[in-house]
Amino acid sequence: MKFSRKTLGIPYAVFLLLFVVAPLVVLFYYAFTNGTGEFSLKNLTDFFSDPNTLGTLFYSLLLAMTTTLVCLLIAYPVAYILATSKMKSKPVIIMIFVMPMWINFSLRITALKEILTLIEGNLAFYPFLNSVIGMTYDFLPFMILPIYNTIVKLDGSLTEAARDLGANERRAFMRVTLPLSMPGIISGISMVFLPAMTNYVVLDMLNNSTFIMGSLIGSYFSAHNWHNGSMIALVLLGIICVFTLLTDRGDEKDARTGGALL
Amino acid sequence: MQNNENIIELKHISRTFEDGFKAVEDFNLEVRRGEFVTFLGPSGCGKTTTLRMIAGFDMPTEGDILLNGRDISKLPPNERPINTVFQRYALFPHMNIFENIAFGLKLKKMPKDEIRKKVKKVLELVDLEGFEKRSVSTLSGGQQQRVAIARALVNEPEILLLDEPLGALDLKMRKEMQIELKAMHDELGITFIYVTHDQEEALTMSDKIVVMSEGKIQQIGTPEDIYNEPQNAFVADFIGESNIFNGIMTGSMKARFAGGQFQCVDDVPEGTQITAVVRPEDIEITDPAEGQIRGKVISVIFKGIHYEITVQSGRYEVVIQSTKSAAVGDTVGMKVAPDGIHIMIAEDHTNVFPVDMNRNHRLEFNGTELDTSLTQLIKGSRRNENHELLDENGEVIDPEKIHISAAIEPQDIRMTDDVDDEQVLIEGVISNLIYKGDHYSYVINTELGQDFIVDDEYLWNMEDRVGLILPIDKMRFIVKK
Description:
Chain A contains twelve helices and no strands. Chain A has helices at 5-31, 42-49, 51-84, 90-98, 105-120, 127-153, 156-164, 169-180, 182-198, 201-205, 213-222, 226-260. Chain B has a six-stranded mixed beta sheet, with helices on both faces. Chain B has a five-stranded antiparallel beta sheet with strand order 13-12-11-14-20.
């Protein structure tokens, strides 16, 4: 018996319908209806007129951007040094950065929480800082690996060519290595920024009671307000879509290779 | 006193890598301004390492590099007036052609108008007018190669280094680029240092060829010199096709090899062991009666402008290039004019290696005891009741204080595939082979770092792992205290 490609695709199509399309339809339905089931744009206007929601959006963006920036500032030098050094123990050092990901997430954050409490005395003093530290700890490997993969694949003779043509080490890096590692950087940013926007578990566990987008949606849903919650989720989806489209060009080639290592 | 004619001088350059591998050893070279010099040799001979030291990507462990009389061996690459054309072009993929070529000029802070003019001019030189806005990925291999050359030339370097620049091109393209590069060199008057493993490329383009092997210079000379008067069997074998025979001088300008008596032009003392090199095109096929040697044709291959004819003459195989064909199975005579024979005094191929005296006062090599009598070897020595070796004064000989070397001729060593054979004294890898008419001469790199030269009539492959059987009765021992 022979299967055509189409027949073999059926299980996936069913999966797609049930778990991607159907929830989206439900999401859209709730976002654009009111409590009585009539079409309404009120949820949308609510979102943009409620200072609380906008404040949460702003806080989430700020937190995600700071986390991404900190990750990038740590990850690039690490990835660069690892990729360009002739060390024999390179895989071991990469492992050191990847290994925490094998440990249960909540265990890791709990451990971090204990350490931070020890240093700061009370976590409540620096909620923003703690959240940035927690998320950086959590997402750092996602930034290092794509950058490392891009740099390690760079043809070494390119920097030699730049040096040969009169560039000192700093110039050769700025004009050749850095621009050519952009795909990895973009890939890393999109792998850190998007989860950082929505991940409220880290904040929750580190006792940061400020709402971010994820926790806001959660609170609406637990209050059975499906309509406003859906609308917030939808707006967030829109933001993520725009961001993905913007970074997609550089991402295409390297996201796959970056992800493959994980 | 400095000789102003020499643009660059390499003095006793050596490069030893961290693992102890000697990539380049005692390399000495003078290059005159405007010369086209080629480093020629098989891969791994150290030619690229030497080039990288001139460019500044690698530092010599010993020796000086003088540019116009000034030592530059410690300068970084960006401070040397030398530019490189890389093997795989190394064009910057994130820049278009204009930006690639202008890279060096922009670093020099040259005004924009001037940069534009220079880029335009150099693109004309490499025949790529109007390619400024194109991206690197839209160009063919040959075009990328031209951009790489333009990018180096636009900086007006004193020396242009080319690292196998045509290696990635197809044959036709390569031939075209050879002619163009040569024309560019003649037009610009810049000194070119070119690296290749392709002997034909080297012969076509160079003013001076440096033949290298295993990190050492084998011969420096004009293409004619190198081809017509190779200094050793390696050069003869590497440059062009050659018949190489071991032989002996039998009189003034008379040599005996390949089973025949030949008149030659090199005056080497009678009785000297020689290596004779005869180019295939210098052998003339004659009637059997008229030839200096005779043989049976075993193969004939048509090669376009000539036939390649292989003749079996006694134990020897002789390769001949001739415009006249012959039939397989024919008996033919062969004649070589005196100036077609190149005589080299044979290098001494005897293998000499150290052996140890172990704690049991026995000879040992590579962990295996050699069954030989030490009492006969060391005059006046005898063994006491503990089997210890005593010298003529009756004192126990300290193994640390005695040095014994063993010598064995290449033809006395046997090679075997079976490295676990108990007769095998040492294992090694075949790193070199030269056909010498009736046998192959192999160089075996062993794990002890000692190279052995082995003659064998059968063909083994390069990189083969072999065990060496050194018959003890064929070894001679030399004792030094």
